């Protein structure tokens, strides 16, 4: 598998508070948190590699994670196998919903732009892909933003919020939707309509002029997954399709990995932690949840099936688009 990279150019403005100090002003003592972080980073930089490799990813310092990323790139040259290895390195990572934002670039909330110690389903998939495509921490952080945002332009309005119509479309350079092909000519599909402007206003208090969009999405029904499983490849992306009250949507995502016998497994982050299981196991757990909801009189979501997106063989990572200057017209 060939991988071409764009030049690494992190376009996120850096905040350098100390430049405001006058030449005659004695330097202030660094905050306690910063002072503590420096020895931690120094220790991580000199820690024996064997000690780092013995840790799960979610317990690594960013410096350690950067060293691991460089090591695994050399140790496993096959991208698909590298994705599986990195994903399994996070088995047991605690789950936490709504982890990431744009802080400190944007301050509509205080959620950071990466997370090593926790994940939700999207964060887990994005971090795994970004690490697998990178050879250093700097490149991983750049790649993560390239995956998370449309054209790599950082901002809540350009984040890939909707799985089917944002994430899957913006990352066609990385994955290709093969759901219709796998489902066959008589396979099911659903129509979804999204209002991004309304979502941004209600969820993020952000005004944006974006037209309402409608799309038709093919998927593989849950009772046909066993029949097509052999066509799935390690590193492919999984969208879990749920339904309720006649509406369908991607409620969850994860990755395809191969078990010891070649069986296709589903590796994903869900409460309480990252886990690996068979698709049969996942479908059975969903059925048990649905039965509990039925007995309790709850109108819960129901598993309808899955969308599958094939990891591309010849990946060319697109460059970042220029980061617009906030509050100014384009090009100013």
Structure description:
This protein is an alpha+beta fold. The protein has one domain: putative xylanase like fold (Roll), CATH 2.30.260. Helices cover 33% and strands 20% of the residues. The chain is built from 11 helices and 11 strands. The strands form 3 sheets. Strands 2, 5, 6, 7, 8, 9 and 10 form a 7-stranded antiparallel beta sheet that branches. A hairpin with a 5-residue loop joins strand 7 (247-258) and strand 8 (264-270). The radius of gyration is 21 Å and the shape is globular. The model is unreliable at 6-23 (pLDDT under 50).
Task: Briefly characterize the structure.
With 332 residues, this protein is of the alpha+beta class.
Key attributes of the depicted protein:
single chain; 332 residues; alpha+beta; putative xylanase like fold; seven-stranded antiparallel β-sheet; two-stranded parallel ribbon; 11 helices
Topology:
Layout: E1 2-4, H1 32-46, H2 49-53, H3 62-75, H4 79-88, H5 121-132, H6 137-148, H7 163-170, E2 175-177, H8 179-183, E3 189-194, H9 196-204, E4 213-218, E5 220-221, H10 225-228, E6 237-244, E7 247-258, E8 264-270, E9 273-278, H11 279-295, E10 302-311, E11 314-316
Parallel strand pairs: 1-11
Antiparallel strand pairs: 2-10, 3-4, 5-10, 6-7, 6-10, 7-8, 8-9
Helix pairs in contact: 4-5, 5-6
């Amino acid at each position: 598998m060939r991988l071409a990279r764009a030049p690494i150019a992190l376009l996120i403005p850096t905040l350098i508070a100390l430049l405001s100090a006058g030449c005659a002003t004695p330097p202030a003592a660094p905050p306690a948190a910063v002072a503590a972080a420096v020895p931690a980073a120094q220790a991580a930089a000199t820690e024996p590699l064997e000690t780092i490799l013995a840790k799960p990813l979610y317990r690594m310092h960013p410096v350690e994670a950067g060293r691991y990323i460089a090591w695994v790139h050399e140790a496993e040259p096959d991208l698909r196998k590298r994705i599986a290895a990195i994903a399994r390195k996070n088995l047991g990572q605690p789950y936490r919903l709504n982890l990431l934002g744009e802080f400190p670039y944007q301050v509509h909330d205080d959620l950071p732009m990466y997370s090593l110690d926790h994940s939700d389903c999207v964060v887990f998939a994005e971090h795994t892909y970004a690490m697998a495509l990178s050879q250093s921490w700097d490149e991983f952080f750049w790649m993560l933003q390239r995956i998370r945002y449309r054209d790599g332009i950082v901002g809540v309005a350009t984040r890939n919020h909707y799985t089917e119509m944002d994430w899957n479309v913006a990352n066609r350079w990385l994955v290709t939707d093969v759901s219709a092909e796998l489902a066959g000519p008589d396979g099911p599909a659903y129509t979804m309509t999204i209002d991004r402007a309304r979502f941004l206003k209600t969820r993020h208090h952000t005004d944006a002029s974006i037209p309402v969009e409608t799309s038709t999405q093919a998927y593989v029904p849950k009772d046909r997954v066993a029949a097509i499983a052999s066509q799935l490849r390690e590193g492919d992306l999984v969208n879990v399709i749920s339904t309720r009250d006649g509406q369908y949507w991607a409620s969850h995502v994860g990755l395809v990995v191969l078990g010891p016998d070649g069986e296709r497994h589903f590796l994903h982050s869900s409460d309480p932690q990252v886990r690996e299981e068979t698709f049969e196991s996942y479908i059975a757990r969903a059925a048990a949840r649905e039965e509990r909801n039925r007995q309790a009189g709850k109108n819960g979501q129901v598993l309808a099936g899955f969308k599958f997106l094939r990891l591309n063989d010849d990946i060319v990572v697109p460059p970042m688009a220029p980061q617009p200057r906030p509050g100014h017209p384009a090009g100013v």
